[in-house]
């Protein structure tokens, strides 16, 4: 990332003090759109799927709905399956541009996660698939209900779990050694809670996954 981009990103995003990570955050970016409208349109118009994951040889339904969009060459492999991206919609392209400008980096794909209520969640994981490269820059835009993102260090037990609330229109950029050193996830909630969408914009190295 060039110095110019760093300066531009610095205009809206603040570094977060988490050891062994490289996080930038804004609790509210300018979307140029009404966040509630974007949430409603994406919830209604996205062809949501509930994918299965394989854990210790058993298959489970993921506790959330997802959709994957991107440039045609941005294929990725996850849990033994190759996913072909849906083509970007005009709305997602507009959000991608906003997030690219705010974060000073480029993305060719976005994973949409729809947490319908407090029972939906995402287990601790790192986004460290080979097609993301060794130091991926991932920009995570949240809409709707505030949920907490938990970070746990992959090796060091002396570092406490780090909790970050992600309100509507917040933008979190995870880059550098963040994925190599930390896992992150969204816990289930016991209290009632409304819908939340999270969009993680990523750069998939073209040609890194062959179809099949
Ligand atoms: O919902 C979130 O904030 C986390 C999403 C995430 O970690 C992912 O898509 O890999
Ligand atoms: Fe993630």
Automatic annotation (TrEMBL):
Keywords: Dioxygenase, DNA damage, DNA repair, Iron, Magnesium, Metal-binding, Oxidoreductase. GO terms for biological process: DNA alkylation repair. PROSITE patterns: FE2OG_OXY. Residues 106-206 form the Fe2OG dioxygenase domain. SUPFAM superfamilies: Clavaminate synthase-like. It holds the Pfam family 2OG-FeII_Oxy_2. Gene3D superfamilies: Alpha-ketoglutarate-dependent dioxygenase AlkB-like. This is Alpha-ketoglutarate-dependent dioxygenase AlkB. It comes from Seongchinamella unica.
């Amino acid at each position: 990332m060039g110095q110019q981009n760093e300066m531009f990103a610095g205009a809206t995003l603040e570094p977060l003090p988490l050891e062994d990570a490289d996080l930038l955050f804004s609790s509210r970016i300018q979307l140029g759109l009404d966040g509630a409208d974007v949430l409603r349109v994406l919830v209604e118009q996205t062809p949501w799927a509930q994918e299965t994951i394989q854990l210790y040889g058993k298959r489970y339904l993921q506790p959330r709905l997802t959709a994957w969009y991107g440039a045609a060459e941005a294929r990725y492999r996850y849990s033994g399956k190759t996913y072909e991206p849906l083509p970007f919609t005009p709305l997602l392209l507009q959000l991608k541009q906003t997030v690219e400008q705010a974060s000073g980096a480029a993305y060719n794909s976005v994973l949409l996660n729809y947490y319908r209520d407090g029972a939906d969640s995402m287990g601790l994981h790192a986004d460290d698939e080979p097609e993301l490269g060794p130091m991926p820059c991932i920009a995570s835009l949240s809409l709707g209900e505030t949920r907490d993102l938990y970070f746990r260090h992959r090796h060091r037990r002396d570092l406490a779990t780090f909790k970050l609330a992600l309100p509507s229109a917040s933008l979190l950029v995870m880059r550098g050694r963040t994925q190599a050193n930390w896992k992150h996830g969204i816990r289930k909630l016991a209290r009632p809670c409304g819908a939340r969408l999270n969009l993680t914009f990523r750069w998939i190295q073209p040609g890194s996954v062959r179809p099949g």
